[in-house]
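fyi for ur records
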Amino acid sequence: MLSTKLMSRASFLRSASTHAPRGLAAILQKNPEDVVITFAKRTAIGRARKGQLKDTTVDELLQALFKATLEKTKLDPSKIDDICVGTCHPPSPLYVSRAAALAAGIPNHVPISTVNRLCSSGLMAIRTIAHAIQAGEMSIGLALGVDSMTMHARPTPEICEVVDKNVEAHDCVQPMGWTSEMVAETYKVSRETQDKYALISHTRASESHAMGIFAEEIIPVELKGAVVSVDDTIRPGVTAQSLAGLKPVFPNWGPASTTAGNAGGVGDGAAICILTTRKRAEQEGMEILGKWVASSVVGVEPKYMGISPIFAIPKVLEQAGLKKEDIDVYEINEAFASQFAYCVEQLDIPIEKINPNGGSIAISHPLGMTGVRQVVTGLAELKRKNGSLLCTSMCIGSGMGAAGIFVNEARSASQL
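which gave:
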């Protein structure tokens, strides 16, 4: 059971989006003022330091994604009101994002911002654009998530001595691997359980990769004269035996149960969503893929940052007036199998609904990209299944969590 301290702390440190319709029937209604998603794609992902994007800078990746998106959608870039890019560690992120947009042919009157809430940065970019549209401040916006963990690995945070004397302040800047081991130790998540959930991720991703399912969500981009269109992060042939044979990567912390096979992969990539009002989308003849509904952000003890979806998901469901059974697909980030396993079992959601094509353990977790990638992946899956509701969630470094609710409005050709 979760401690009273964790629950009270999480309930105190949370914020949520406003203007959300409440109840399943209200959420599924179509209204002119709805914030809708008219385009949702991602680049292929590359393995950090070894993969196809290891020599690609963040601005180069963003420029390629902007250009491919404008070419695919035929969107007049002069009609874009604002852009928000979620990204974590590149230096001068606003400068490089602005430069990439200009180099891609987006006019200089189109503004841009960046947001960093670590692993939820992409979702926060979507939320930023959605809220501005809801407020009537704009009509068409782009939300992106990007990170190159090759070029910009997590830096070691530095805090002063007086701040470091506070236990939680000290914990919030510790390596993420340490938090994985703390969750495993405190909540008794065994190595065997972690490997079990990791195998599900690897198996599902490998099967989806082989079936060409990810091609439906990937937009090919041209980089250095070559077209990048297929993930190189997915490892076919992973077995229970091969996972069990891996050595711990953090042997000096906790039960030393985290391995390269049961932790979220380190990668490079970017993803994008175009958002507008339903009225504007219909006026412009844009295809409507889905609808933004709501988001939540919570805080938990930094030492156990990985358990935060346990709080973020019920919060966003509550504010939307939904039950967990109403959701057709959950995309819950697999930062580490320790925290993912514990979240799944505490939330008591059928694993069949969660990450049906695998998650970050297999696909990889470019930090800023993931929050948008989950929406891209989840909406594509709902389209295939003719499902209605998507819930995305992730834990966030330093002790936070976030979640979002989206409605699918696209149907596959076989359902038309």
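Confidence is low (pLDDT under 50) at residues 3-18. thats all i got for now
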